[in-house]
Automatic annotation (TrEMBL):
Protein's organism: Streptomyces heilongjiangensis
Protein name: GAF domain-containing protein
Keywords from the named record: DNA-binding, Transcription, Transcription regulation
Residues annotated as domain OmpR/PhoB-type: 244-310
Keyword Disulfide bond: no
InterPro entries registered for this protein in UniProt: GAF, GAF-like_dom_sf, OmpR/PhoB-type_DNA-bd, Sig_transdc_resp-reg_C-effctor, WH-like_DNA-bd_sf
The keyword Magnesium appears for this protein: no
């Protein structure tokens, strides 16, 4: 096969391929071995699905309904390009008795549209708006796997991990935020075996690229055209969008901008000095030199002094998460959380903010008692050793994988001090 991301090579018999895939799926679910002709992308996905505790008889869970779904969709950036997606893909889906689906970065379906009879069939497996189709929840499937591996992918028939989904074939491509490059969702086409063709994968990928181009032309809602966009979660070096120009900041400049973004009124030199340096011997001259370099990097008119402040509005991913938490939109807050704030930073004020933000999120997750959200956190790099979250997840979803991981963490907690101290981010 020339392209491992395409489900069927030219000339392959789809009926025979389905038979061999079903046998391979049975072998894997019973003994864990992968046999031919399972593609490597599918084999890897099956293994991830099994590690996440997905069973072949499972089904998708509906995560958002009614008003919650409507509010979440309205706020999601992909809502702004849905008219374009419908124009490019909607007619193809309806005429071919397929479904057009769009999910977020967690594999949660936001829109499912297309042929009415096909939609009714899909309802039976909860392929509906608001349902969680993440790979870690329902195993191998095109939208969930596309966001998991950040690649366009086809999933054909019995390549699906859950048997209920195996009559279907789908192709999906991830969509990225043009400012940060992060995956924000995926566009999917789902239907019959006829979609197992290179053209369907190329088509959905072209629609995803068109959506990204459209997003790049749009100013974020409610943000002035000259506003700064600061991305600092999950990265040691923040990225700043300035007048359409992406600027990668040094660690110290990242810390300074995070703090100034939180204090639009400005900070004095002494306040910045205390916020940035644990070492009291660091002199104001050192700080002034850093600020001078930052001013040259940003360009004229953006960094003021006496007090030090940013002269234009700033929207940061930290502020977005905090606003959503304050309004109780826990799912939206988790979606916007790209990871710990500047995880390598030792600046006292940044470390406090990093801890406060992570604690606020994990506390809200535990209180919410949503097993899907807890699983997302527990399987993320920053949550893999979070004992409280794993305990909450085990209480709601006591799969063998979850219980085994919880036993490991509890055993390490009982180990001698200094051997396995766990530190939450």
């Amino acid at each position: 096969m020339t392209d491992p991301w395409v489900a069927l090579e030219p000339g392959a018999d789809p009926v025979e391929r389905v038979r061999t895939l079903r046998r391979a799926h049975e072998v894997f679910t019973q003994g864990g071995a992968v046999t031919r002709p399972v593609r490597s992308v599918v084999a890897d996905s099956w293994r991830r699905s099994a590690r996440a505790g997905v069973g072949p008889e499972g089904t998708a869970r509906v995560d958002l309904t009614d008003g919650d779904l409507g509010s979440y969709r309205a706020e999601h950036p992909l809502a702004r390009v849905m008219p374009l997606v419908r124009e490019l893909l909607g007619t193809f889906a309806a005429d071919g008795e397929h479904l057009l689906a769009v999910c977020d970065a967690q594999g949660r379906l936001l829109w499912v549209e297309g042929h009415p009879a096909t939609r009714r069939r899909a309802d039976g497996m909860n392929f509906v708006p608001g349902a969680r189709w993440a790979e870690s929840e329902v195993g191998t499937n095109a939208p969930g796997t596309a966001v998991a591996v950040d690649r366009p992918v086809q999933v054909f028939a019995a390549e699906h991990f859950i048997r209920q989904v195996q009559p279907w074939t789908c192709a999906a491509a991830p969509v990225h935020d043009p400012r940060t490059g992060r995956v924000i969702g995926a566009i999917d086409i789902t239907g019959g075996d006829g979609l197992a063709h290179p053209h369907s994968l190329g088509f959905v990928q072209a629609v995803a690229r068109a959506a990204e181009s459209q997003l790049a032309l749009l100013v974020p809602p409610g943000a002035p055209a000259d506003a700064l966009q600061l991305t600092a979660l999950g990265r040691d070096e923040a990225q700043l969008l300035v007048a359409g120009r992406k600027v990668r900041l040094s660690r110290r400049h990242s810390e300074i901008l995070v703090l100034l973004a939180r204090h639009p009124e400005g900070l004095s030199g002494d306040e910045l000095l205390c916020a940035l340096y644990e070492d009291e011997s660091v002199t104001p001259v050192t700080l002034r030199a850093e600020l001078a370099r930052l001013r040259r990097l940003l360009g004229p008119g953006l960094l003021g002094s006496r007090p030090y402040r940013l002269m234009v509005p700033v929207e940061s991913d930290v502020a977005i998460v905090e606003r959503r938490l304050e309004t109780g939109a826990v799912t939206s807050a988790v979606t916007a959380y790209g990871g710990p704030l500047l995880p390598g930073s030792q600046a006292p004020a940044v470390a406090r903010l990093r801890h406060r933000l992570a604690e606020g999120l994990r506390t809200a997750l535990i209180a919410r008692r949503d097993p899907d959200l807890l699983a997302d956190w527990a399987h993320a790099p920053w949550g893999e050793e979070d004992l409280d979250v794993w305990r909450a997840l085990a209480a709601l979803r006591p799969t063998p994988t979850v219980r085994a991981r919880l036993r490991e963490l509890e055993a390490e907690l009982r180990a001698p001090a200094g051997w396995a101290q766990r530190r939450r981010t």
